[in-house]
Amino acid sequence: MKDKQMLFDEQQKKTGISRRAFLKTVTGAAAGIGISQVFNPALVSALEKALEHHPVLWIQGQGCSGCSVSLLNNVDPSIADVLLKVISLQFHPTVMASEGEIAMENLYKIAEEYKGKFSLAVEGSIPMAANGKYCIVGELDHKEITMVDLVKDLGAKAGSVLSIGTCAAFGGIPAANGGETGATGVMDFFHIYGIKTPVVNIPGCPPHPDWIVGSIVHLLTKGLPELDDDGRPTLFFGENIHDNCPRVEAYDLGDMSEKLSDAKGCRMELGCKGPDTYADCYKRKWNSGMNWCVDNSVCIGCVEPGFPDISSPFYEPA
Which of 102, 188, 252, 302 lies at a C-alpha separation of 20 to 30 Å from 27? Predict the structure, then answer.
């Protein structure tokens, strides 16, 4: 007798997911973000018959798993719908049941079977010092696999790569001054090894779940989104925080907050890095639209290259 998972898999093969149904499911994440007209035929060709034929492989390097936690907080659509109906997430070390060599074998099998078609999501930076030994991600055939090995192999086979979080995009906290691991982001890593696979940076410490889901949606339905000079989707990272801040009028009037508990006033003199930061946090907000950094503290510029060094100290003027 077939178990429930086998029956579910068979049903998925029979029905697939139509573009119309797919877009309806992800309306909550994609609404209002705009759709770029930049197409990547190599990426979307696999979607013409069924969207589930475009697997997403999520790997984790030197980080805190905060980006995965952010993704799990996605509300509309729910993370259950995202993982089971929207994206064909075939590998994720934090949420999958499989582990050890069985998991690694499946990872490489999918990468080979869907070579040039799957999307690789990278969370965490890539530590290059000590031949990559600072981050061992698994073992196969009695051989340790480093994050360097994994990104070099899978990155070259992928149809696209998403750098999830500032660590994966730009090096982030592991690459800050004083680090010993030689941590680097995906784009710089690809440049070193001559890997040409397109990269979409989704920075943030952590990134908003909408940025993650919305970027994956765009890849699956339209191909690569329009990117800024730092490789970030302009539909999420095209607006300046300070210019759109609800406290900008206070800034124009010279009304500055003296302490973080002040209900009014601009927080520039308390260290806000909004003028140098580009993201749509001010309108998207966090925790199901409850609040955002400037409601409680200051913008620390976590989506920008060079974070945290360029933003430190957080509570002193730039």
Answer: 302
Catalytic residue among 54, 67, 135, 208: 67
Residue 187 has pLDDT above 90, yes or no: yes
Is 135 a known active-site residue? no
Q: Where in the chain is the domain with CATH 3.40.50.700?
A: 7-236
CATH superfamily placement of domain 239-311: Cytochrome-c3 hydrogenase, C-terminal domain (4.10.480.10)
Tokens of 175: 């690459």
Kindly name the residue from 92, 205, 208, 218 that is annotated as catalytic: 205
pTM, entire model? 0.82
Distance CA 180, CA 302 (A): 21
The mean per-residue pLDDT over the stretch 290-294 comes to 91
Give me the catalytic one of 92, 135, 218, 245.
Answer: 245
Listed in order, the ranges of the chain carrying CATH 4.10.480.10 are: 239-311
Q: Is the distance from CB of 28 to CB of 89 less than 8 angstroms?
A: no
Q: Which of 92, 135, 218, 266 is catalytic?
A: 266
At residue 227, φ and ψ (nearest 5 deg) are -115, 150
Q: Is the pLDDT of residue 43 over 50?
A: no
- Choosing from 64, 191, 208, 218, the catalytic residue is 64
Q: Which CATH number fits domain 7-236: 3.40.50.620, 3.40.50.700, 3.40.50.720, 3.30.450.30?
A: 3.40.50.700
pLDDT of 24: 41
Residue type, 56: V
The whole-number pLDDT of residue 289 equals: 83
Cα→Cα distances 258→49, 144, 166, 255, Å: 59, 53, 30, 10
